[in-house]
Amino acid sequence: MVQSPDAALDREQLAQWLTLSGRGDESAFAKLYEHSSSKLYGVCLRMLRDRGEAEDTLQEVFTTVWRRASSFDASKASAMTWLITLSRNKSIDRLRKRREAVGDDSMIDGFADDAPTPPSHAQTSQDHQRLDHCLDELEDKHRSAVREAFFSGATYNELADRCSVPLGTMKSWIRRSLIKLRTCLER
Amino acid sequence: MTTTTDTNGHEKLRGAEYVLGVLDAEQRREVERQLREDPELAAAVEAWQERLAPLAEEIAATQPAAYVWPRILAELGLGGSVMARSAPEPTASGGLWNNLRLWHWIGIGASTVAAACLVLLVTLPRPTPSPAPTPVQTASTPPPTTFMVAKIEQNNGIAGWTATMDVTHHRMILVPATPQAIADNRSTQLWLIPPGHKPISVGVFTPDKTNSMDLPLTLVKQLSDKALLAVSLEPKGGSPTGQPTGPVIAKGSIGGA
Prior knowledge:
- The complex is a heterodimer.
- Chain A is an all-alpha fold.
- Chain A is built from eight helices and no strands.
- Residues 1-8 and 104-109 of chain A have low confidence and may be disordered.
- The longest helix of chain B has 14 residues, at 7-20.
- Chain B starts with 6 loop residues before the first helix and ends with a strand.
């Protein structure tokens, strides 16, 4: 069975399933899983780079969805944003635990070369196109740092190591980029 | 180096840093604690989530393994989408769902179930509108099959493994129940035996761990309630001939819609 790509999915339908899941509707919960799990698993897998850990995290995401979907407010956030945020937070927390346990064993020699590349605009939402446009206004290395942070869940320290720049420099790059992004997106 | 000029701006940036994911564990907990007391920070975090989440569109969707959904249902104690055909042993307490929980989730409950083979059909809703799934009691109206589950029993009658086959996505998960100890110089190999056919190798597996295996289409086509799964003891690395060469130490029927 081919899963519906989130881009093609009706936002309202997803929000409805999420809202109904919050009220204990199991069949809506199953629909929600069917239509969002491959996207969310992709997010977890991208950050954790380990199928087993990504599966465990996806399980944690959906058990949390079932228990906390009642806190989802369709008037304040899109369902996919809510789900992606939850998936990223669970993945980041797991990354932090892993690094406490074994130390950071990920690549330290620059950024991963398999970072997603921006898809053509025809395939992405207007929100993505706007963000992409604003990212384009950043200096190249700043943009790379922001993208790497988002996709890998790396801390300031890890980003500084990977880029071989002092911690203060990395913090400055990221913070300046965030301020510029906010200004650009609010234009 | 500070790039913000006022406290307010800095706090909002803290929210952005939290959403982007650059803070360490301790800093994250601190932000989460503040979020509960500071509506302004909470609003900033929500705004940054909306701003940055579109980046996730660049990440390719990847189908998770078929057993993740049953594991989620098991953890939550939900069973609304689970259907059964061949009934479990009537004396098995707790009913079908408990069996599913045990089989899928920890894999040790199978030995307590007397039934030689239990077929569970778990249906994920289809994209097309359809009525809510209801338990199917007869073989005349088989539901769409996504999973088949079979117990692989050892010669001593104790379940060695449970196999869950995802027909749709061509995957199998093999979970140890109470497998016998295997000598270090031997490998366990799983075989599918369609009725009237020679065994077809599914693959060598680690007997005491959960194994996730691909099911090539040629194998999926042979899955039926007349087919058997069998485990043989082979030289390290698997049968050199493509057919079982050692003793069969466990077997079990599988079923399908």
